[in-house]
Write a structure and sequence with these properties.
By secondary structure, the protein is of the alpha/beta class. It is 36% helix and 19% strand. Helix 5 links the parallel strand 4 (111-115) and strand 5.
């Protein structure tokens, strides 16, 4: 079942936290010379038109990236420079997804694998990436693809796992895939995005990671509304295995302000905590 299209949601508050964490991790890993392998198991279309029909239908970006004034966030200079580089005008007309963020930061000797199953999004991604020999776009299952790539030859790798959680089994599937991947490559960095739709699912996800036997796991989350039993996403987070040592300090400063700036209700919250110590 592939009904989800990220173009309806691009640039929303959940993308903001995901892409900020992604950039923080990439910048740290790229400060060392040795080649990095970037694997995006759910890559999406790459670039999103915020003036297009899909984006304008829900206009979620207005309560996400649209709320952030670059001058107020010098700490997010890289994030804004990547967005700026993908917009011809000063207006926010396009929003770069995770593949384009990686493409902006990776160096000549780094390599990337982008998995996208949706035929249209996969085609769009292929066109957007164009002729870039560092990148491979594959219209294949990202979970199976990931396991086949590990461990990378260079033993330096970042894996972004960003499913849409359309089916509830995805919550257990992501834990299983991180466990299997970690067995093959235990020094890799794994960044898993999750939505807060039903709090119980997130609590179970946390518990599964805490009981996984994997060490060194951190979690970063913002909630722009209080938890609710109604339908709809009230928050989003990233679970990071083997995070850069700098990440906790950086996110602990950013998250309180971000959760306030992106608030959709008077009561908001954030989490920056260690799920499993080193
Ligand atoms: C949340 S979106 C990705 C957004 C993207 N990572 C970004 O940050 O710009 C999830 C994508 O995963 C794709 N997808 C779903 N199941 C997949 C699978 N098993 N393997 C690869 N792609 C999948 C969907 O078509 C969708 O485009």
């Amino acid at each position: 079942m592939l009904s989800y299209r990220h173009s309806f949601h691009a640039g929303n508050f959940a993308d903001v936290i995901k892409h900020i964490v992604l950039i923080e991790i990439l910048e740290h890993l790229l400060s060392k010379d040795k080649a990095l392998h970037y694997i995006d198991t759910h890559a999406g279309a790459g670039m999103f038109d915020l003036t297009g029909e899909h984006s304008l239908k829900l206009q979620e970006f207005r309560d996400g990236v649209g709320r952030l004034v670059p001058e107020d966030w010098p700490e997010l200079a890289t994030y804004f420079s990547i967005i700026h580089a993908h917009n011809a005008q000063a207006d926010l007309a396009g929003y770069p997804g995770s593949p384009m963020i990686a493409r902006s930061l990776l160096r000549r000797h780094d390599r990337a694998w982008l998995y996208e199953l949706h035929p249209q999004d996969s085609l769009l991604l292929t066109e957007t990436i164009g002729r870039d020999r560092r990148f491979r776009v594959l219209q294949e299952d990202g979970y199976a693809g990931l396991l086949g790539l590990l461990p990378p030859l260079t033993r330096r790798g970042l894996v972004l796992i960003d499913p849409s959680y359309e089916v509830k089994s995805e919550y257990s599937r992501v834990v299983e895939i991180v466990l299997k991947s970690h067995r093959k490559f235990n020094t890799g960095t794994y960044a898993l995005w999750y939505p807060v739709v039903e709090r119980e699912r997130v609590v179970n996800l946390e518990r599964d990671f805490e009981n996984s036997g994997i060490r060194n796991i951190q979690r970063f989350e913002i909630c722009v509304q209080p938890d609710s039993k109604e339908r709809g996403m009230t928050g989003a987070g990233m679970i990071v295995v083997n995070p850069p040592w700098t990440l906790m300090a950086r996110m602990s400063v950013l998250l309180p302000r971000l959760s306030q700036t992106l608030a959709q209700a008077p009561e908001t919250s954030f989490k920056a905590d260690v799920l499993v110590a080193q």
